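Running this now, will post back.
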Amino acid sequence: MSNIEVQILKDKLAQLEKEIQEIDVLNTELLSLRPNAQIMASWEYTHKEFPKVPTLEEVDKSDVEAVKAAKDQQVREYWIKVMEIRLVRNQLIKCYKTEGVNHYKNCKKLADLYVELLKEYNSSKEKR
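Update: finished.
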């Protein structure tokens, strides 16, 4: 490497270090504005825990808040089932594409799981 290339790399490194310091200053300012805030990257996901509440059949219909909580829980559980089925389906499609003619043998467990999840979903749908 020539001296010019080394100097260019040193300049870029100094510039990146300066940008990192600026980001640290901004993060410190953000934390001072919101002391309980957590700085997360855009790819990080926080999981929210919801309290377990009685089902719609078990709740007193005159208690509006309890009915709403039961409905919200039912919707969350429904979407969890739907997303679980979607994830398994996507894995199955990917397996079919990667395994080619051997997909009958190599993707059988995923296919069985997908069918089982669909049956559970349909049986829970009939109960509603």
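Residues 1-44 form one domain. More later if anyone needs it.
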